[in-house]
Specification:
Blueprint: H1 2-31, H2 42-58, H3 60-70, E1 74-76, H4 89-117, H5 120-141, H6 163-180, H7 198-215, H8 221-232, E2 246-248, H9 258-263, E3 269-271, H10 273-281, H11 287-290, H12 311-317, H13 327-330, E4 336-339, H14 341-353, H15 361-375, H16 380-387, H17 399-410, H18 415-425, H19 450-455, H20 457-467
Antiparallel strand pairs: 1-3, 2-4
Helix pairs in contact: 2-4, 2-5, 3-4, 3-18, 4-5, 5-6, 5-7, 6-7, 7-8, 7-14, 14-15, 14-17, 15-17, 17-18
């Protein structure tokens, strides 16, 4: 009898276990959303990451409240603390967090999905955009987690790589990505930049390599020359026209340009006096594109705001007597430019002047200025008249001034890239914020976010010991001369 009871209990237990397991399976099936993808799709990740990165480079944290003010493209007429270099802890943290947790994480997943599916083109495009993200991060902060980054299963507290090593690594990554692209291979979807045109992606990869080669030209000229010479040997592998600009063209609300969205509720930015005065001096036809005329009549119709004014001084200038940002940049569909044709030409002009290639630097400079003017739809007659001015002519004896000033204009409202190139070329020669808090100095980087100090303390401390004090005024490797 006892034996039978044991058998009965065993059978009952097995039956109950099976029943519960079946119920669990049924419940799981009932709770599955038939319309939800179980496995991440590369096209959705790619589109989302492109959009998130575009929002970062035009948004408040990395642009409006930091780099676009530091490089004096914009100025503040209200809430002027950021324009005086009082950096917001939140802004600095958001730039870091959003690049790492949004763009880089998604681009890395796109690469892995491409590897798993055997689609080398997803791998390549993911690696190009991942490299672009790292380039912007190191441009802003200096030494950053790179080789161990986005590998949370392996490195919870990734080390910081020296900026030089990051740039050299990116040159190799972009070379690999360009070589991976198979223009006759599997197509890609979710491409908000080139709509699946893989030839243009290869050009973007090579143009990024050219950018980084010039970034290190003062510190590692041998490597820079080698990369530039390789690329210049076949210029067709670079962005070769304004129709090949790497950019995201926004849509109407709710997917509009972040500047457009910001302007719906705020009116605290104006075009910097530095920009307005320079364009008036040069009789530059881009002035009415970059800035709006003042609402009230003023002698020149355009009035810029001095960067870093005290709040009461800025307010006294008057909202109707100062120039707002031009409609081109506040339109819902205004593009987020990742890398332009004019920038490629400016980089080639500089490479020629440095002796890296044998091309005519003056001719490339003239073509670069022309490309920028055409990008902003300036008429051919106005272009001819502008280039004929002696003040615009190329000066080989001071090429950094010629290229630096015109590049600063061409990169208007591309805060991150303009800020980096201004630090590298040291032109135009701007004056620090009027009431700046850095003792008459400019900010030369972003400080590391407080989250890193708390959660990645050992790596953070090692980076600071190597790079220098964690201050806005600490020069980065590419900028230290």
């Amino acid at each position: 009898m006892k034996y039978k009871n044991i058998i009965f209990r065993s059978v009952f237990t097995l039956a109950l276990t099976a029943l519960l397991g079946a119920c669990q399976d049924d419940l799981e099936e009932v709770n599955n959303n038939p319309n939800e993808a179980i496995v991440a799709q590369p096209e959705y990740l790619l589109a989302n990451a492109i959009k998130s990165n575009a929002d970062i480079i035009l948004g408040s944290d990395a642009s409006m409240e930091t780099t676009t003010l530091y490089v004096q493209h914009w100025a503040k007429i209200q809430y002027t603390d950021p324009d005086k270099y009082t950096a917001s802890v939140t802004n600095i943290q958001n730039v870091w967090t959003n690049f790492y947790s949004l763009g880089l994480t998604d681009f890395d997943k796109v690469i892995k999905l491409g590897e798993e599916s055997g689609n080398v083109n997803y791998q390549a495009v993911g690696l190009i955009l991942k490299s672009w993200s790292f380039q912007m991060l190191t441009d802003l902060y200096g030494d950053i987690p790179y080789s161990q980054a986005v590998k949370i299963d392996q490195y919870l507290t990734p080390k910081y790589d020296a900026q030089k090593d990051v740039y050299l690594g990116l040159l190799n990554d972009l070379k690999k990505a360009g070589d991976l692209i198979n223009t006759s291979g599997s197509p890609i979807s979710g491409d908000l930049v080139y709509n699946g045109n893989l030839t243009k992606w290869k050009k973007f990869a090579n143009s990024l390599r050219l950018r980084i080669a010039l970034r290190i030209a003062d510190k590692d000229p041998a490597t820079a020359k080698s990369v530039v010479a390789e690329l210049a040997a076949n210029p067709s592998l670079l962005i070769a026209g304004n129709d090949e600009i790497a950019q995201l063209i926004y849509l109407s609300s709710p997917n509009q340009n972040p500047v457009s969205r910001d302007r719906e509720t705020r009116d605290d930015y104006r075009v910097s006096k530095s920009v307005v005065d320079k364009l008036l001096e040069l009789k530059d036809p881009r002035l009415p594109i970059f800035a709006n005329k003042t609402v009230d009549a003023t002698p020149n119709n355009y009035v810029g705001v001095t960067n870093g004014l005290l709040a009461d001084s800025a307010a006294k200038l008057g909202f109707t007597k100062t120039s707002k940002l031009g409609d081109y940049f506040t339109a819902p569909t205004s593009p987020a430019v990742f890398l332009s044709y004019s920038e490629v030409l400016f980089n080639l002009a500089e490479a020629a002047q440095r002796g890296f290639i044998s091309d005519d630097a003056a001719a490339l400079y003239k073509n670069a200025v022309t490309a920028s003017l055409q990008q902003f739809k300036v008429s051919s007659g106005d272009i001819t008249a502008y280039l004929a001015q002696p003040i615009v002519a190329y000066n080989a004896a001071n090429y950094k001034k010629s290229i630096g000033e015109q590049k600063w204009i061409a990169l208007f409202s591309q805060g991150l890239e303009a800020y980096t190139e201004w630090r590298r070329l040291d032109y135009p020669q701007l004056k620090p914020a009027y009431a700046g808090v850095l003792n008459g100095k400019f900010p030369l980087r972003l400080t590391y976010p407080t989250g890193e100090q708390a959660l990645n303390s050992a790596s953070y401390k090692a980076a600071v010991a190597s790079q220098g004090e964690d201050k806005l005024t600490t020069k980065l490797w590419f900028d230290a001369q």
